[in-house]
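Structure Section — protein described below
Tokens — whole-number codes for backbone shape
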Amino acid sequence: MISTTTAGPRRALAAGAALTLTVTLAACGGGKNNNGGSGGVLTVATGSTGNFIRNFNPFAPQPLQATNGMIYEPLFHLNAAKAGEIEPWLATKYIWSDGGKTLRVTVRTNATWNDGKPFTAEDVAWTFQMAKENKAQNMYALPIASASAEGKDTALIKFSKSAYTKEYFILGKMKMLPKHIWSKIPVKERATTLNTNPVGTGPWKVKSVKGMTMDLVARDDYYFKGLPHFKTMRYRSFTGNSAVTAAVTSGQIDWGGGFIPDIKKNYLAKNKNFELVNIPLATTFFLPNAKQGPTADVNVRKAISAALDRQFMNRSVYDGQAPVANPMALLLPNYESVLDPSLKDAVIETGQGKVDQYLTASGYTKSGGAWEKNGKKLSVTVELVSGWTDYVSVAQLAKQQLKKAGIELVVKAESYAQWSNNRARGQFQMLLDNSGYTPDPRAYYAQLLDSTIPPKIGESTNVGNFGRYSNPAIDKALDEIASTKDPKKQKPWYYKIQQEFIKDMPAIPLFYAQNEQEFNGNRVTGYPTEDNLYAAASIWLDPDGGWVAARIKPVNGKSGK
């Protein structure tokens, strides 16, 4: 059994069956006072999302950012930026048994919902039982068999099969809900209710949502004493990346996360106290629909991949700061421990010869410089968010490169709401997207490839495998990885996944995604840095953004008005 305190140095999480965490201080920023909200306004940029819709339903395709981490909280904080680091959140201890089929969780006894009701193990058990009984609420496709409470501080969750692979989602992603609120909502309405005044355990309550501004107000009874450090957390939305950039570079934003071209010149050089934290947490993909349309053909996917000049895109769009991904889509160096040694030097196939080889194998012929089949030219539509200007540039370059190879790429820029809805329902041919944001390679590959996650096309999922890819060999490998905590026994199955990925290319890897987070050091401190990466620094990341938001501090008591 491993013991650690949040006041001392963080230690790597061992691969044992039990973990005990003892809380002595609020991690990364316990204040001198017993109540949070000692500062003024923390202003953050949500990006180019347009007007806010007052929806805090964690089951909705597009809940407001504040829903996850700021209002609703998980059991533990699994640091997305550092594999193996874990800290208590709503729970203080967990123990696996029965080969990953039984999980016993000890929850806090000092946490309350923001309506004053106590948070108990009954809430935890009910949240998991609700997910078991309704697939729409089982967001992470957990194999839950039963959930029950043992007194006020212990929840017992049993699974129909080993759930080790799902540990990150069970402990670090699934948000606890108040039984006394959600049990009164009819089952059929739980996914559609707007939940405009959410009751959560988090450090913030909703104050107002108006147009492109949303204000949260700090609770004065949060169980992490002294947190949060700001009285108000203000979200600002914008119509596009250009508007975000203007606000961030002019110092209006305390914490931003938008792409800024030539960021050294256009941001860092503008003020000596502006700081950039850039830790890649994901892989950028062209995500094809593997179930229907032209990209359901593996040879079409491979031909599209072979036609792309990723290095040129990297230099042109990201100033060389987005390294080209590998063909097995393994996020490196984060997951180097599970890299198949035989693939350590593997690179993505490129060139017209490969394009010709794959399309010819699928019965395509070239006519007038364009590939066609049965009299119909090969045309693929890629959807992306119109305000994400770097992705727009990547797509336009891809369009030019594919045209040269004889493939038509139709670029469809749309609102985030439309894009995310199409993604959730699998109603697309190809998306420009990214995947990752987990310290666990098990969760990474499961999110991307597990065929048990997505429902049929037309039904919604927020979890992953949006392209509806299915491969029994990968499913078996994920199950085998889930059956043991022994890394030596897991590795051959990780190797199998990587080999199958190269063979099938269910997603088309592009780059290691950039994760530029800008902090106005004139006004804020206490945020994650490379020297103190206590969480992923992304304001939008669920739930690390919430962990950081409670711990970021005003500089010398200064803050926004």
Observations:
- The chain has a mean pLDDT of 89.
